[in-house]
Amino acid sequence: MILVNGKPEDRISISDRGLNYGDGLFETIAFRNGVAEFIDAHIQRLVDGCIRLNIPFQQLELLSTELDSIYQSLKDVDSVIKIVITRGSGGRGYLADNTAEPSRIISTHAYPSYPKSYQQQGVSVRLCQHKLSENPTLAGLKHLNRLDNVIARNEWSDENIAEGLMFDQSNHLIEGTMTNVFIVKSNQLISPKIQTSGVNGIIRAQLIRMANQLGINFKEDIISQTELNNADEVFVCNSINGIWPVKNIMDFEKTLSVGPITQQLQHVLLEVEK
Amino acid sequence: MILVNGKPEDRISISDRGLNYGDGLFETIAFRNGVAEFIDAHIQRLVDGCIRLNIPFQQLELLSTELDSIYQSLKDVDSVIKIVITRGSGGRGYLADNTAEPSRIISTHAYPSYPKSYQQQGVSVRLCQHKLSENPTLAGLKHLNRLDNVIARNEWSDENIAEGLMFDQSNHLIEGTMTNVFIVKSNQLISPKIQTSGVNGIIRAQLIRMANQLGINFKEDIISQTELNNADEVFVCNSINGIWPVKNIMDFEKTLSVGPITQQLQHVLLEVEK
């Protein structure tokens, strides 16, 4: 099912600023067991992002009503719900028209069918050659300017490699192409700072909150390739796949087992999602 | 007139990667006196960009035929022709489907009506606070990830300010929000290096070629804010507006007259466009 500004359509105007400039934001939400997981956090991030980009999004009630009809249409079929908000079609060139209404696009997609082993035994990852663009003003946002991720993800086609890790221009670890990343070193849980690049992931934020509740020592920090190579545990996470332990970093010829902190967080995350 | 993949339409699929990721490129072409100016250079940049982004664009003959029909529809009305090429709708998430056909979108727009004084007496510009993202892999490309330009252009609404100058993360001058920039210092023509950010403009390239033919001393270089402030001449340029001399840099309270090298290049550019 697809709703464009509340109507069942599958196309948008070619003058939409989302197409022309990537001038918008998106959310990818897990709909499982009849529930849109962490929906409040997703909506909050969307609203925060619109504020940061100065997109005058005031259709929150409409969006909420539309999501309800989407949930009903899905019945109990596990699905991915994608929301795209753009600045709409107004303006002259880059200059926006702040009286123009943003575009709302909600679409549903089949839940991806990754092997169960990805969560249980872990995944193989590689290091991406393409480096993330850096800009503090855009860092954290799940905006529609995603060429970095596209270029990085298309560096490999080997289906045995589940994810690629991405680095900034200074070769600091930031995230995966579609995930956030954590490492564990000497019982310290560490995730890269999202200051000049990277996305503020919903599951990343949940895991940081859970780690605090569990008394797991957590910090945001700069992570070099050497620190990644020396990590005791590594995992990647996102809203759709939960936590994937990393069992193998190809370029380092490094193999890891699923460590205790990774398992603990997986357990708690699965409990919350129930 | 709008053609989407050769058909008269004004919408595209919401699954198009141009919308979802800004996964594509565009060209903005001046159609004046019945001629699409520098069309070969625009098409060449589009093809080069597709190669750099690994977009399998092989519809050059179709595009050419479609442009011909666009020219005919315009008759002799001066217009702006915009071409957008995206990676199309294929793939799974960021992973592209290289068998999917790219999308071709051609649209025509009214020629913008800026005052004649902009070319003759020059324009007022300001310095944008928003800094350009840096990434050597993307630098030069006229890609669809244009949030930097959108954010910068929306810093001001004063219609007396025609353009904003943009700087990289190190505060080096790179370009205007919709233009390239040149300065003149002691008869030396200088344009910023397009190595980590900025667009390789068509008019910029033409002017560099013309400067060489005219025996004007030209170099690409790093330009600091101090060097900008000390310049004898400053001008911005693009395919639609030609050369706009800068008469006033607001933030520096700096005023300039239209200098001899700027005038010389304006003259030669107008001759070529005839």
What's the order of the H and E elements of chain A? EEEHEEHHEEHEHEEEEHEHEEEH
What overall form of chain A do the CA principal axes indicate?
Answer: globular
Oligomer: homodimer
What gyration radius of chain A follows from the Cα positions, in whole Å? 19 Å
User: What is CATH's topology name of the largest domain in chain A?
Assistant: D-amino Acid Aminotransferase, Chain A, domain 2
Q: How many helices of chain A?
A: 8
Report the strand count of chain A.
Answer: 16
Determine the N-to-C terminus distance of chain A. Answer: 25 Å
Under CATH at level 1, the class of the largest domain in chain A stands as: Alpha Beta
Structural class by sheet pairing and helices of chain A: alpha+beta
* CATH homologous superfamily (4th level) name of the largest domain in chain A: D-amino Acid Aminotransferase, subunit A, domain 2
Helix amount of chain A: 25-40%
Which chain pair has the greatest contact? A-B, 55 and 55 residues
Approximate strand percentage of chain A: 25-35%
Number of self-contained structural domains of chain A = 2
